[in-house]
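sanity check this:
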Amino acid sequence: MEQMNNKWLALVVILTAPLLYVIDIFIINIAIPTIKTNLHATDGEIQLVIAAYLLGSACFLMIGGRAGDFLGKKKVFFWGMLAFTITSCSCGLSQNATQLNIARFFQGVSSAFMVTQSISLIQLLFTDSKERAVAIGWYGITLSIAAIIGQVLGGYLAAIHFVIAGWRLIFFINLPVGILSLLAIHFYLAETPTLQRIKFDYKGGFVLTIGLACLIYALTEGRESGFPAWFYLLLLSSVLLLIYFVAIQKRKLANRQNPLIDVLLFKVMDFRVGLLAVLFHFMFHTAYLLMMAVYLQSGLGVDAVTCGMYFVPHAIMFMISSMIAGKLLPRYGKRVLQLGLGIILLSFLLQIFFFRDYDMPFISMLFLSLYGLGNGLVLPFLLNVVLNNINEKDAGAASGIFSTFQQTASALGISVIGGIFYAVLETHTNTNNYLPALQTGLVAGIVCIVIVWRMLSILPNAVNAKQEAAHGID
């Protein structure tokens, strides 16, 4: 890679990708009740606003990473950012929930191409191990800052009306940021060498996308429709397509071609167990943030601006505990994560037994902060757990699988646990129906916590020292 005039300035440019990507996750969570009201969306459609974005990202993470190797990372980063900016504006122009969900899916697709390049560019730009550790640390800090910005900005923009509805500004705000980022990419990043022999696994990517789309759509829309015949047909199609996808990957691997996913990695037991921990952790994490945003605004009557502010202590506690845990992890290993799960469990139990319909909303803020404290000990370090017994030469492929699982799990959490939450809302006809819905969703979250705890208990406690610096990537 060509030498940059200032690689730290280049890092600032690179970090715009994860910044925008994470902001567009959290900014939507806070604005969900407002968007639902303005677009007259159903519960299933509003779940898809989040799930479609995550699904689009999950399906194309592996392809996005390969595209950078084949076409050049700067080029793919630039076009990914351009597509993200355009699809963001398309979201803001949507006239109904269907248009918004289609635009959100392609916004997620474009994010997969730009975010994967940001991680790769950091690895290429910072060859010194100490500098790379600092750069990756800034990557992790950027994710935390993006979460805070998204929550505060989502609440503020959803509450205002300036020429157009405020919720549309949530998407249009990406336009000036995207343009500045595109100019910076053009002027401050150099192109990387390309590997001409790499070929895309178009077939595998297509089958994986359709298979996951069938699964997510069935889980989000099937409940509202009374589980009709197409629900079971989509579920069956999803299973068959995912089985076919695995067969495609095995065949390509046997023929020494380039599969989308190296299925041989799944023969490593610790890797499989670690991925299960990732799956269930991100399921309850993403669903919890959605449920709390809806509960605060629709259940307790908190306005969008205040709701966004209530999430700020959660993000700050997450940042503080993750920095502390980074120093504890090399010594205590998975026990740090198990401690975090214990704190999350305590937070959920307190909310189940002590929340009341008439509670002051700031009590919710306290329990959110406790959740952030526990989650900061877990979420940023799951990558270390998954890669613990993976050979260094397979770390890149394993990281790609990790990211795909993470995004898919988040989409499933919105569909499954979020679906349970909305199902309880529909069965309770009294005015205080949000509390039992939240409590039921928290019980589902506790089930996931127990599974994650069990998966971690199976894994060895040692943490590979070579991976200590990687905790900020996820």
In short: Residues 395-427 form the longest helix (33 residues). DSSP finds 18 helices and two strands in the chain.
